[in-house]
Amino acid sequence: MGRILAIDYGKKRTGIAVTDPLRIIATPLDTVPTHQAIDFLIKYHESEGIDLFVIGMPKDLMNKDTDSTASVRSFINLLQKKFPLHQIHQIDERFTSKMAKSAMLAGGMKKSDRRKKENVDKLSATIILQSFLESSI
After folding, report:
1. Nearest to 13 by CA among 120, 132, 100, 130
2. What is the residue range of the signal peptide feature (predicted)?
3. Cα gap 130→69, rounded to integer Å
4. What SS3 string covers the chain?
5. What is the pTM of this model?
6. For residue range 7-40, what is the model confidence (pLDDT) as tens digits?
7. Ramachandran angles phi, psi of 117, nearest 5°
């Protein structure tokens, strides 16, 4: 059984989280510049193996597309071309950044670390992945 990898796509940075090989634990992996995300995913897949992808789909409070939705769909199309045999699941990502910030505060993370947007991005990807794992039970 391979890993599940989650993506919190952003125009500048992309947060990435991954499960363990048994798909029990969701863990923050990294935050990469978005223009390097596909290359990062290819290298990670070659070394660790990925079975499927989960990507956060941005929607507004009325469940309508946001300014970022088109960019995420374009990224999904590119991901499908690079990984044609892998499933790609879309998960509602509303409030993940807010939840990530709350989790960092509750976990006692220093203020300087909470201000680093890359920490929010990879923790948001972890929340997206955890949500997927809980919905697949």
Report:
1. 120
2. none
3. 21
4. CCEEEEEECCCCEEEEEEECCCCCCEEEEEEEEHHHHHHHHHHHHHHHCEEEEEEEECECCCCCECCCHHHHHHHHHHHHHHCCCCEEEEEECCCHHHHHHHHHHHCCCCHHHHCCHHHHHHHHHHHHHHHHHHHCC
5. 0.84
6. 999 999 999 999 999 999 999 999 999 999 999 9
7. -65, -30
Give 114 or 78, the one with higher predicted confidence. 78
Question: Which amino acid makes up residue 33?
Answer: P
Q: Give domain 3-135's CATH number out of 3.40.190.10, 3.30.420.140, 3.40.50.300, 3.60.15.10.
A: 3.30.420.140
- CA-to-CA distance for 48 and 64, rounded, in angstroms? 35
pLDDT tens by residue, 33-81: 999 999 999 999 999 999 999 999 887 777 787 788 899 999 999 999 9
Residue with tokens 């409070």: 61
